[in-house]
Design a protein that fits this description.
Elements: H1 2-20, H2 24-41, H3 46-65, H4 71-77, H5 81-90, H6 96-104, H7 112-123, H8 127-138, H9 143-163, H10 169-174, H11 180-184, H12 189-198, H13 202-209, H14 220-235, H15 237-256, H16 262-278
Helix pairs in contact: 1-2, 2-3, 3-9, 7-15, 8-9, 8-14, 9-14, 9-16, 14-15, 14-16
């Protein structure tokens, strides 16, 4: 009975946190214990494995969004300049996002290539979990290790979003942190296209998925996709090739669209490789 209570509390706490003004440690503690409680109370079958993973992501989403509950405090703590300095060094004086958009983009338009990159970015919300689900179906014995690796990337990565909230290129451009030349070359193309494609539904979609605009370092988009590519390669060479192709295109998309700096991707890759190295 106590495990069911812990499970219920873990599901409810993120939903009720604003209404009841629950402290962050209470919400994160309750949500973080829910997967363990589910493991105790649910019978061992595939559906229970899926439930444990889903509850882990429920806890992750709470941890990801909660810094954004107080936008003013988050803005006071945000780190803006260090990734700019690193990316300028990597881009020979200009951040790569600005260089790419200046070369291939036309202000006021979203070309076919950019639409492809935007869709690649949107697909990410399903990609890591789809890869783990594929492994569960194709090779169930590999699933526990694969799920542990994948969701460790999420869980460890979100710690950095609390410790060092970092602004992405589009945010830096909007807040005057870039040079005039760079600012002119950095548009948030995903939002431009999203408004045109989804129209009236865009506000609800974006509000649901964009709860923390200052969660950029490391890039969990890239880190989890890289982990997916590794896991799929270990299970099926063809699926692995799909995973590596997607990760490559996504990496380009994240930089081109102004959602991440190059250094965000580098640190995301380092997180994934560190987890893989420590997993055994």
């Amino acid at each position: 009975m106590s495990a069911w209570t812990v499970l219920a509390a873990g599901v409810a706490a993120p939903v009720l946190r604003r209404r009841l003004r629950l402290p962050a440690p209470v919400v994160l503690g309750a949500a973080g214990l829910a997967p363990a409680a589910a493991y105790v109370v649910l019978p061992r079958r595939r559906s229970s494995d899926v439930a444990v993973c889903a509850l882990n992501m429920w806890a992750y989403l709470a941890a990801y969004e909660m810094p954004g509950d107080d936008p003013e405090r988050l803005a006071e703590r945000v780190h803006v300049h260090y990734p700019i300095r690193i990316d300028r060094a990597l881009g020979r004086g200009v951040i790569p996002t600005a260089r790419l958009q200046r070369t291939f983009s036309t202000p006021g338009r979203v070309n076919r290539f950019e639409r492809l990159l935007v869709w690649c970015h949107w697909i990410w919300f399903a990609a890591p979990h789809s890869s783990v689900a594929y492994i569960l179906r194709r090779d169930p014995e590999r699933f526990p290790a694969a799920a542990a690796r994948m969701y460790s990337v999420f869980d460890i990565g979100v710690v950095f979003y609390w410790a060092i909230p970092t602004a992405p290129p589009w945010w830096a451009a909007e807040h005057g942190a870039l040079t005039d030349e760079e600012t002119a070359g950095v548009r948030r193309i995903m939002v431009e296209y999203g408004r045109r494609f989804w129209r009236d539904r865009w506000g609800d979609l974006f509000g649901t998925l964009g709860g923390n605009p200052l969660a950029a370092m490391p890039s969990l988009h890239f880190a989890t996709s890289l982990m997916a590519a590794h896991l799929l390669s270990d299970t099926d060479p063809i699926a692995g090739a799909v995973g590596w192709s997607y990760t490559t295109i996504l990496g380009l998309a994240l930089i081109y669209l102004g959602e991440h700096y190059v250094i965000d991707l580098i640190d995301g890759a380092a997180l994934t490789e560190a987890i893989r190295a420590g997993a055994p």
